[in-house]
Amino acid sequence: MSHTDHDSNHPRIISTLFASAGIAFLLAIVVFILPFQRKVEDVAIRAQGDVARHSAQSIQLAVSALVEREWDSLVGFSAYVDLDDHDGMRVLTDAAAMASEGITWAAVVGLDGTVMASTLGKDQGADVSTAPWFNQGLRGDTVQTASSGEGSRIFLSRPVRDAYGQAIGLAVYQLQGAWLDRVVQSAAARLEVDVMVLDTNSEPLFAYGDWTKAGPSALIRSRAELGTEFEVIVSSHDDAPTVSGVFPNVIEGSMPPFGWSLVVQVPVTTGATAMGSAMSSLIWTLAGLFAAIGVLAIVFAYRYLQPLANLAREAAQIANGESIFPSEATRTYEAEQLSNALARFQARMHREQGAG
């Protein structure tokens, strides 16, 4: 049995070429595609972080403008109040509530905590001396949030002062929490983001979107309590990555601090979708690259390597004593040299056999 009859464990040169091309393509994916994918994710996270920041700023401006309007109304209300004119105070309290959808109750309270005049006479004559908004309000401009079975209520209070600047009473507005909730939800729906407003204790006041299903995480609560500047928080919600940001102050302006925090959340997939065309182009580019590598490998193999493979097989046949003439190969220097060498070797073998 000749040597060539035995199967060799060594790979063929053409198979090696195709395997090398495949490995090179896989290495290109590992070296280029995976880092590019991570880069795309980073870009998506940064982009969504900007979306969250801009959305938070938009909501902050909308809510601040609305609440500041009510505060300016209270400033004017406290300046016009005359504690000696009961009928005049009743007219002012009724007018304040009629002028704004958000004001559910306006009142003038004496230094002893007795409600002297109020909207439609509600709670008139009641003692509110134990209410936090009353005690804090006598010391200066105050915002106080309270919750009840009817929902959250926001009390804006401001001292009524005499000509000498001494506090002689208290002007107070009660804002409806549901009113602000509608404003926040409307802005969140328009911006297509999930929103949650936290009070001074980092407890939810208002929520929209996915925040209505679950409360804030411990990380978000801690950021709200610390009052740090807006910082992107990447987390997972329902197995989908999200980007959240905590805005330390929902309401800003020439009024007392509310101490509320605004949390905005957007899905990362929204930002990744914006990269969809780039990823699609990349996939088609890779497919084209793979096809080009395959075509080049086939052309190279059959044009340059196949002649060498044929000559190698013919060399083995000649070595086994078969009388064949090696094929002529001139496409590469090495193939031409091998072809000529086999031809000379075969001719010499024929001469020796003839002489024998």
From TrEMBL:
Gene3D superfamilies: 6.10.340.10, PAS domain. The keyword Cytoplasm does not apply. One of its GO terms (biological process) is signal transduction. It comes from Maritimibacter alkaliphilus HTCC2654. Residues 302-354 form the HAMP domain. GO terms for cellular component: membrane. Keywords: Membrane, Transmembrane, Transmembrane helix. This is HAMP domain-containing protein. It comes from the Bacteria. The chain crosses the membrane at residues 12-36, 282-305.
